[in-house]
Amino acid sequence: MSKILVVYQTFGGKTKALAEAAAEGAASLGAETKVKEVTTVKVDDLSDVDGVIVATTQPFSSMAGDTKKFFEQLWIGRDKIKKETPFAAIINYKSDPKATEASMKTIAGYLGLKPVPGWLTVKADDTEAGKKSARQLGIAMVQGG
User: Fold this and answer.
1) How far apart are CA 122 and CA 82, in angstroms?
2) What is the pLDDT of residue 4?
3) What is the C-alpha to C-alpha distance for residues 75 and 130, in angstroms, rounded to an integer?
4) How many domains does the chain have?
5) What SS3 class is residue 90?
6) What CATH number is associated with residue 26?
7) Which of 1, 8, 56, 106 has the fewest CB atoms in 10 Å of its CB?
């Protein structure tokens, strides 16, 4: 059975809803899922997972601050993370998400995570519609992440 960790940072609940939808998708294929708020995640939480999805809001054309801190904490303990762990992101944005996506892919590479196809960018006003795509991302993570 796959173990999928879904980490999120939200300001108003929309990104959390997307994270939960991704976890629902993974669980629909029998994966064991954990959904955790970004400030509660420790590097040890990533040591035995088969995939990680990070969902972040994007204020000021960049990933949210606690999401960045999360990645910085992972850097310190990166030797505890299984190399090539599949990694995907959900970016809930108001302005162009390209810089955030590029930054997250770069960080994933530094950490030895393997970015998987199908990353999700959801315009903040389209969160409800984005839940279906988030579920599909969770399914994809289990199927071939």
Assistant:
1) 29
2) 98
3) 30
4) 1
5) strand
6) 3.40.50.360
7) 1
